[in-house]
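[READ THE FOLD]
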Amino acid sequence: MQMRIKATGFPLTPALTQLAEEKLLGPLERRLGRHVPEAMPVDIELARTTRHHEEGNIWKCEVNVPLPNEKTTIFVEGWGDSLEAAVNKANDVIERRVGDYKGRRNARFLRVSRAVKDEFRISSLARRAGEAYRWIRRR
C-alpha cells in the first residue's frame, strides 16, 4: 500500500510520518494482507482543528482506505487531546471496519457456494467447498 499523508495546521515531521505508518498502515497491511494491491493509495490527514484552543479534542486524524474489488471506501475520523490519541482512535475504528469487510466478503463467498451446492445437488463438491475456499484464500 502507498501512504499519502497530509498535515493541516502544523508542519509534518518524519516522526509523525513514522507514527502514522506504524499505527495505521502496519495494521492495515496485516489485516488485509495479500488481498491489497501495492499501488492502492491510503490517504491520511493529520490536522489541528483550531489555533485558538489549547486543550480538548483539537487534534484530528482522517483516514480514507479504498477497498479492493469494491466501489466503496472506508472513511474514519479520530479525535483526541493529542495527535497520538487521535491516531489510536482512528486505528481502532479502522481495524473494526476492516474486520467487518472481511466478514462480509467471506459470508458472500459461502452464500454463493451454498447456492451452487443447492443448484447442482452434488454432495462431494459441497464437502470440498471449504477446502476450495481455504485454497483460494492462500493464493
